Amino acid sequence: MAYPDRLKPQTTLLPHARHTILAQRFMPRVLIFGDVRILEGVTFPRVAVASIHGCPDRLPDSYCLPMNESAAPAAPETPKIETREEVMFFDTDCGGVVHNIAYLRMIETARTRLAALLGMKLREMAETQLFPVVVRTEIDYRKPGRLGDEIVIRGHLDSVERARFWCAFEMRRAEDEALLITCRQSLALVQMPAGRPIRLPEDWMTRYAHLIKAR
Q1: What share of the chain is helix, strand, coil (3-state, %, to 5)?
Q2: How confident is the model at residue 95 (pLDDT cuts 50, 70, 90)?
């Protein structure tokens, strides 16, 4: 199909099963054409659709909606982290399998990095003396890790309450993605040296509204 020369300098050709889509930049619109919603939530402003039989350089305004009316809302933010650990001699028992406490050490490393994503970096905590303290751990040992295994630890913020929050973790062997461990931990913010629990930051109730635990 031949496209008009006037379109070539300012368009990006995007393939589609039913249409060829020419996205013209710098005109803040989003197109809805038939059952196709194009570039929803993306800053590509106006589009033109070229059918098999022709190539209009623009569609009527009736096919276009302003970005703020048609753009999908941003996906909720869920902080996530991934770390990796190699199973060392000191992680194993006499049978060469990872002992229970070693998994918790690896989870602690991942949890510390997840806390940094939540605004609780190590040096800042040392200055403010405000720490996330584990108050409960739930863990299931599904398969054993062994000496020399590379273990992938994935963690995320799981749920939020007024004074506590839960983090969830899974541990898999990198070689075959075998699930070794699932774990959830509940944490509270504690102000030291008084040891006084405090509420979670107010902005968490907005940022992580999708994670608020129903009472």
Answers
A1: 20, 40, 40
A2: confident
